[in-house]
From TrEMBL:
Domain (AMP-dependent synthetase/ligase): residue spans on this chain: 9-374
Classification of source organism: Bacteria, Pseudomonadati, Pseudomonadota, Alphaproteobacteria, Rhodospirillales
Record-given protein name: Class I adenylate-forming enzyme family protein
Gene3D superfamilies associated with the record: 3.30.300.30, N-terminal domain of ligase-like
AMP-binding enzyme C-terminal domain segment(s): 424-500
The species this protein was found in: Marinibaculum pumilum
Top-rank taxon, per record: Bacteria
Entries under PROSITE patterns matching the protein: AMP_BINDING
Length: 519
């Protein structure tokens, strides 16, 4: 049985004087952070939060956000990190679904509270950073100062530690229930797979409510490394913070890396301490990878694949395979090998393993796999079958265990009986210099059932036509895979909190009124 509290205990025991967190002018050691978290947990219990209760957290990245995540586990409660990009009705849906005992909110989202129905507001609201503190709210710092440290609650193992709501890329958000065992074993998998060490100083630039970044909170803490924070990602802000805090590692999604590589005047930023960027949550097109590698030649790019339901890490592509040249080239398009605590296999529609090299659905098993979906037993049963988590991702495995993702199962376009994988078409289009973002999906067609469609956002100042995109595709991929229609979009793509393009939103105008749609 594992406990999240043991990660903090280990950090304080082995590195009490080492820097734990940095933000602005606040610098704290592991001894200080350990005590603050134990005091904050005592405050939660004094405010009425009982073991098993939920604590919802709505705020931007910060050292106090980090303390809140660990204080919930220390108190025996479960954290519910809320996507900061959601509208008030979507936040209301989450609060109604999980019914938290406490809501923790920072200044950036105080206005959202006024838009929430009174019946959904928890009895206790805590302000992370507001000055002055709004009427009726408790203050994060005052709570820490006003309570003695409590011993860690005896929560652990299969006890609920967090409810992480999915990004809604395939429908309405579901609350993924993760246990102490889930999150701690994932931390160990992350330490090994991502090659973290005691000198890791991770910059939290991606949103911490999402486990693509949030997993680093647990993994780096287990080692007694260091955390530094910026409230929200901007490419210039991230570059400046790397130099200011001496960050060695960061986690980003490909969209963020794309933006980082396009910053003018990169030489004015000191990125000499940066050793590694972990990326995932969405595929990175080869053209983007080449540009990032050229702009940051001293930085390892490490591709990880996973999902919220698996806490989240499933595979990592070792850094030596992230190359375009030499004897190890050829696996750049792979998402890597299963991490130590995970079993993977590729299965057919009946759940039977398919031969090597055959496309099927990726299924995973291990102590990192979720308890289930909050209040959704039928949907839990649909994906947790015979001890395996069915990911909904289509892919294949080669003879050495490297996994290659071809598409979300629901993103595969079936046109005239031919399977077209949207990721393959997106990779072809992304090779065009004038393309900033691209999304490919199926739209209804009276003869073929579905037709391949591409939505493309051009690079600012670049001219791009639908005809040019289609003509380019014909030089890169088979004719039946080429888009039959292209929208040149003048505004950024809609994205989830994890930075994934929301194809559900892009599809809606095309499938409206159809009796069959694609989720």
């Amino acid at each position: 049985m594992y406990r999240i509290a043991q990660l903090l205990d280990r950090a304080r025991q082995q590195r009490p004087g080492h820097v734990a967190t940095r933000m602005d002018d606040r610098v704290r050691t592991w001894a200080q952070v350990h005590e603050r978290i134990a005091r904050l947990a005592a405050a939660y219990r004094a405010l009425g939060a009982a073991p098993g209760d939920r604590v919802a957290l709505l705020g931007l990245n910060s050292d106090r956000y980090f303390e809140t995540i660990f204080a919930t586990a220390w108190a025996g409660t479960a954290v519910v990190p809320v996507n900061t990009r959601l509208a008030a009705p979507e936040i209301a849906y989450i609060l109604e679904d999980c019914r938290p005992a406490i809501l923790v909110v920072d200044t950036a989202f105080q206005a959202v509270l006024a838009d929430l129905p009174a019946a959904l507001r928890p009895a206790v609201t805590i302000s992370l950073d507001a000055a002055p503190v709004p009427d009726g709210q408790a203050d994060h710092e005052a709570l820490i100062a006003g309570h003695a440290p409590m011993p860690a609650a005896p929560a652990g193992g299969s006890d609920l530690a967090g409810i992480y709501y999915t990004g809604g890329t395939t429908g309405r958000s579901k609350g993924v229930m993760l246990s102490h065992d889930n999150l701690v074993t994932n931390a160990f998998n992350t330490v090994d797979g991502m090659r973290f060490d005691r000198d890791t100083n991770v910059l939290h630039a991606a949103p911490m409510f999402h486990l693509a970044d949030g997993m680093n909170s647990y993994a780096v803490t287990a080692l007694g490394g260091s955390h530094c924070f910026i409230p929200r990602f901007t490419p210039e802000g991230a570059l400046e913070a790397i130099g200011r805090y001496g960050a060695s590692h960061a986690a980003m999604v490909p969209t963020m890396l794309n933006m980082l590589s396009r910053v003018e005047g990169l030489e004015r930023f000191d990125t000499s301490t940066l050793r590694q960027i972990n990326f995932g949550a969405a595929p990175m097109q080869e053209a983007v990878f080449r540009r990032v590698q050229a702009k940051f030649p001293h930085v390892r790019l490490l591709h990880g694949y996973g999902m919220t339901e698996t806490a989240p890490l499933l595979t990592v592509l070792p850094a030596e395979y992230n190359t375009l040249d030499g004897p190890l080239a050829g696996r750049l398009s792979s998402c890597g090998l299963a991490v130590l605590g995970v079993e993977l296999r590729i299965v057919d529609a009946e759940g039977q393993e398919v031969p090597t090299g055959t496309v099927g659905e990726i299924a995973a098993r291990g102590p990192n796999v979720m308890l289930g979906y909050w209040n959704r037993p039928e949907e839990t049963a649909a994906v947790l079958r015979d001890g395996w988590m069915h990911t909904g991702d289509g892919g294949y495995m080669d003879e050495e265990g490297f996994v290659f993702i071809v598409d979300r199962i629901k993103d595969m376009v079936v046109s005239g009986g031919e399977n077209v994988y949207s990721a393959e078409v997106e990779n072809a289009i992304a090779l065009m210099d004038a393309v900033a973002e691209v999304a490919v999906f199926g739209i209804p067609h009276p003869e073929w059932g579905e037709a391949v469609h591409a939505t493309v956002v051009p690079v600012a100042g670049q001219a791009l036509t639908a005809e040019a995109v289609i003509a380019h595709c014909r030089t890169e991929i088979a004719g039946y895979k080429c888009p039959r229609s292209v929208e040149i979009r003048g505004e950024p793509m809609p994205v989830s909190g994890a930075g994934k393009i929301l194809k559900t939103e892009l599809r809606k105008p095309y499938w409206r009124g159809e009796t069959r749609g694609v989720a």
